[in-house]
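Rotation project, supervised by the postdoc (A.L.). Task for the rotation student: set up a whole-complex structure prediction and record inputs and outputs verbatim in this book. Inputs entered:
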Amino acid sequence: MGEKIRLDRFLADMGKGSRSQVKEAARKGRVRVNGQVERKTDRKVEPGFDQVLFDGCEVRYCTWEYYLLNKPQGVVSATEDGRHRTVVELLGPEGRKGLFPVGRLDIDTEGLLLLTNDGELAHRLLSPKKHVDKQYYALVSGRLARDAVEQAAAGMVLADGTKLLAAKLEILPGQGRRWHGGDGRGGLSAKGRTREEGQEEPCFTEIRLTLQEGKFHQVKRMVEALGGTVVYLKRLSMGPLKLEEGMRPGEYRRLTQEEVLLLKEWTGEG
Ligand code: URA
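Outputs recorded:
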């Protein structure tokens, strides 16, 4: 007999939600074990022996896998999508082991994305309570407010009332001359790079922004509120994980054991 684990852990580990979310799903009759609806998630199941269904689909338990991907533009942070290629598809055969992206990067954002099948770790990494830093590089067109750094540090409130945690904004030296783009154009549209006769020279600013949360389009909306427009966005790091300089968009690698341990330490699981 193999090792038995609790049903809530089994489902959470396989990315079906947090433990409380899967508990709630089971209460609603969405979970079956060996053909029977199971509402008690503290019961134990044996991976490979007991059959577990979630919303009618079989969930197979597998050991943890962790991949760091440099997400290219044009690919969606999802496991399935009717229209676009997904980050999971980029991983090829490894992607079929129940991996999912930890959080989302927009389709036009590049950079560090963690893929795993470790639902609990993913949940902790994304929790604003764990204060895991996510650092972004952005090329911004337009001029940011003079007190942009202070506004970000104070915790901004967006126009729709969304309250943000304090963030660290750094204005990098230079005016966006170092365009960073997978396609060599830095994601800038032709319009953004050309200047009509008599028009003012376009102004670009390079910034680094460190957030401890991941609200919808957060970087773009913050920059907009500060008076600019993001024309290129790349995630540089997440907690202890850093995107290596030499890693091209679309490249990926397994995390080392040390990196996995560091991630666990950062999120309070030692
Ligand atoms: N903030 C954004 O606006 N987009 C991303 O993809 C990530 C953070």
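Student's summary: Confidence is low (pLDDT under 50) at residues 178-195.
Supervisor addendum: Residues 105-106, 109, 217-220, 233 surround uracil (CB under 6 Å).
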